[in-house]
Amino acid sequence: MWPMAMLSEPRFSRHRIALTKPIALIYIIDDIFDVFGSLDKLILFTEAIHRWDITTIDSLPRYMKMCYMALCNITNEFAYFIFKEHGWNPINSLRRAWGELFDSFLMEATWFASEHIPKAEEYLANAILSAGVHMVYIHIFFLLGEGITEESVDYLESHPTITSSPATILRLWDDLGNAKDEYQEGFDGSYLECYLKENPKYSLEKGRKHVKRMISDAWKSLNRECFSSPKPFSRRFSQSSLNGARMVRMMYDYDGDHRLLDLEEQVNSLFH
After folding, report:
1. Where on the tree of life does the source sit, at the highest rank (predicted)?
2. Model-level pTM?
3. Greatest Cα-to-Cα distance within the chain, rounded to the nearest angstrom
4. pLDDT value of residue 120
5. What pLDDT digit, counting tens, does each position of 65-84 carry?
6. Which of 3, 35, 62, 88 could be stapled to 16 by a disulfide with Cβ–Cβ 3.0 to 4.6 Å?
7. pLDDT digits over 242-270, tens only?
């Protein structure tokens, strides 16, 4: 669903296939950190990603080794695809982005293991990274191949509004509906939980209204970034950022039974 929304033009078929692989990895790695991995092994896993050296994974459990190998292979394959298409080798940017994502996952795992509830803003600053949105948009930027320069890559890696706002929107919508999913084995906190702990006099409803205002503010920032002139990124990249943010509500707007009714309706429409 995500690749179709963010790279919707028919001519981007190969690009959508290439994008699907890192997105799938993000979900798998998130589950490893939230549900399966012990903290000591997660620390080693993260260190191995930063070193990007296969000799560092000997002490990892088999499922982490398999994930590590898949991540390396998919990333190298993606970098080769970009080099053939656009003459630019993105491997260093991709490695840094994966390392940053792992760091954010590890921070959440550390909080959970120590039963520490961070300040709301501290949680959100990390959660914007752990949402994986920045990682996805780095891949999209290179797939589009428009305006790739040292300067534009450096700017993209600094988490500009065009990637941080969709990440904020996704994380806050997810936290509104999924923070206490009874079907989820792991639990990595939510902005709403942190906010209410800091403000014990506030009701749940007041907290939810606050989060929705933050989502609205993130949308305003994203619109300003994408429709400003001159634009720091290409029109297609801006459109991709907007489309990803538009998908969020469909993917994370749960009802009282924890169902995604809008998404179910869209999927069912494909078969009728």
Report:
1. Eukaryota
2. 0.90
3. 58
4. 95
5. 999 999 999 999 999 999 99
6. 3
7. 999 998 888 777 666 667 777 777 777 76
CA separation for the pair 151, 222 (Å, rounded): 21
**Rounded to an integer, what distance in angstroms lies between the CA atom of residue 234 and that of residue 240?**
10
Type of residue found at 87: G
Collect all residues with Cβ–Cβ distance below 8 Å to 70 and sequence separation of at least 6.
25
- CATH number of 2-260, picked from 1.10.357.10, 1.10.10.10, 1.10.600.10, 1.20.140.10: 1.10.600.10
Please report, for the chain, the start and end positions of each structural domain, with discontinuous segments joined by +.
2-260
Q: Where are the alpha helices (DSSP H) in 161-271?
A: 161-178, 191-198, 204-227, 235-252, 261-269
Q: Which of 270, 251, 83, 240 is nearest to 178 (CA)?
A: 251
Question: 84, exposed or middle or buried, with CB in 10 Å at 0-12, 13-18, 19+?
Answer: exposed
> Which tokens sit at 4?
């179709």
